[in-house]
Structure formats: C-alpha cells, structure tokens
Amino acid sequence: MDASPDTMSDSSTNRRKNEGGWMSAETLSRALPFIQRHAGATIVVKFGGHAMSTPELMAEFAKDIVLLAQVGVRPIVVHGGGPQIGSMLSRLDIKTEFKDGLRVSDMETVGVAEMVLSGAVNKAIVSAVNCAGGRAVGISGRDARLITAAPKAEGLGFTGVPVATDTRVLTTLTDAGFIPVVSPISADTSGDGYNINADTVAGTLAAALGATRMILMTDVEGVMDKSKRLLTDLSRTDVQGLIDDGTAQGGMIPKLTTAMDAVAGGVEAVVILDGRRAHGLIVELFTDEGAGTLIHA
Ligand SMILES: Nc1ncnc2c1ncn2[C@@H]1O[C@H](COP(=O)(O)OP(=O)(O)O)[C@@H](O)[C@H]1O
Ligand SMILES: CC(=O)N[C@@H](CCC(=O)OP(=O)(O)O)C(=O)O
Fold this sequence. Notes:
It is a single chain. By secondary structure, the protein is α/β, with parallel strands linked by helices. The chain has one domain (about 30-295): Carbamate kinase (3-Layer(aba) Sandwich). It has helices at about 20-40, 55-70, 80-90, 105-130, 170-175, 200-210, 235-245, 250-265, 280-285; strands spanning about 40-45, 75-80, 100, 100-105, 135-140, 145-150, 160-165, 180-185, 185, 195, 215-220, 235, 270-275, 295. The strands form four sheets. It has an eight-stranded mixed β-sheet, sandwiched between helices. It has a two-stranded antiparallel ribbon with strand order 3-4. Strands 6-7 form a two-stranded antiparallel sheet. It is globular. The relative contact order is 0.15. Keywords: Amino-acid biosynthesis, Arginine biosynthesis, ATP-binding, Cytoplasm, Kinase, Nucleotide-binding, Transferase.
C-alpha cells in the first residue's frame, strides 16, 4: 500500500517545498459537489477481464473502490474474467467458441468458468480491495440465490441469462458497510451452473437494486463509431442503431444490450470506460469531464 498520511509529507523535508499540497486541496475541494451528489447512491461497477490484466491495474482499481466506499457511495463490484477463463481452457486443451460475444458453454466449460471466476478471480479482487483498506465479501450469482439462471438459447448449452434476482444479500452487505464482489456464475433452480456474461449480470443487478449508475470498465476508451472516434454521449435509440448497423460487434454487443436494459429498468446512466487507465472511475464520478461513453434513457 502507499504511504499513509502519517508517514507521507509530514516530515520537514517534504513540507512547503512546492505547491503540490495546494493543488491536491483544490482538486479535493472541487470534488465536493460530486461527492455530495453520489453519497448514499448504489453504483454497480463491472470490472472486465482485460481491465484487471496487471497487478498494478487491480491495485489501483481496488483503491478507487475503497475511495468510493469511504465517501459514502455503496459500490457493488461485478467482475468478468473472459481472458482468464480462456487461458485455463487452453491449458486444459478445451476448445472454446463465442456467438455474438457470448461463450458457448457445455458442462465442462461452465465448470472451468466457475472455478476460474468464482475461485481465483473473485478472491484476487477481494484480496486487492481488502489490502487497500476496504472490507470486501466475494460471492457469486449462486450465493443466497442472488441470480436464478436459465439457458440463453437452444444450442448454447450452459450459457445462461438471469431470469430472477434476490438482491437481499447485496443490500445486507452494503447496509453493514461491506463491499460485495460478485462473480457472474449462477445456477438454475436445480443447482446446475450457468455461465452468464458479466456485463449482463451487472445490468440486471443495477436495475434490480435501483442503482443510479452502472460503470462498465473495459479495454477500449468507450464506444467507437465506424471511423474509430469515441462517442461520448448516446441515447438508447443511438445504441440500438449501432447494434443494427454493425458498428458494435463481439463483446460490445452484450455491453450495449445490457446498458439499454439497465436504463430502461431505471438506472440513470451507464458509462462504458477504459479500465486500462488507472482512476477512470474517479474521473467519471468526481470530475466535470467524465470519461468514456455515457448512455442515458
Ligand atoms: N463500436 C465499438 N466500439 C468499441 N469497442 C468495440 C466496438 N465494437 C466491438 N468492440 C470490441 O469490444 C471489445 C470490448 O468487449 P470485451 O472484449 O468483451 O471486453 P471486456 O472483457 O472488458 O468485457 C473491444 O475490445 C472491441 O474490440
Ligand atoms: C457467457 C459468457 O460469455 N460468459 C463470460 C463470463 C466472463 C466475462 O463476461 O468476462 P469479461 O467481462 O472479462 O468479458 C465468458 O465465459 O467469458
């Protein structure tokens, strides 16, 4: 962890040498109206597999989540880990394919996805948040029947969609000051595991919880047009257009679909931003500039 305020800048060597302290104070002061706006709000943050690709990015993300909790936001982390599942499948010599951005999952694949996501990836995020001074609790869609799954479609096997939610485990944890970290692997009523895309789970939970924001952290600056220019502001109708005309492809399709569902379900806005750059969450929530692409009703 970084030096604490006790060990930092209190020594006579650092004091009054430059204007850094005044600039930090100015930044903090300018953040006040944003901190007031978001205090008490539930914000669902989806942390994608690419966005967590280095220990440094994981540690910076964890600090941002702890900062949100510290200023009174109720953050709920939903994580992916597609590349991490992919590398385990290839180590096990299991072939994998995607249809419209979703992994076609037979029983063996969903078993590996559960081991990787609800095991290694979930605990790595919990550990990072705890090391940053928060109190994270790792769960999956299965736990406390948070998400009931059903098959997405014929031929996609155990690739699932959420059909029901019971968010009491999340509100119980956030009421008590804990930070929930949710793996998207869920189960049907007979206990069979389903692999659900993490963006879809984030959108479903954001709507069910009445979250004010859902933030999807990914490996691009935001949603791009056909000439690769960043689109900063999109309505639901714009988003449907990007899917229909093929501008959005692959993994961007479940993100945009879930964003449209979330805003239709009452979430004020969805933001898709670059998780490869540290502190995008803070720029988006606590500054005028914002980051990435904002999707609203
Ligand atoms: N119009 C678009 N704008 C931005 N990214 C797009 C677009 N269409 C497709 N993509 C792809 O979507 C990817 C993000 O989805 P995905 O790989 O599933 O991310 P994550 O692992 O973070 O969930 C980008 O890396 C990009 O290749
Ligand atoms: C059905 C489906 O596609 N599930 C995803 C779950 C992980 C995920 O969504 O990870 P990212 O957010 O890192 O892409 C998968 O198996 O890759």
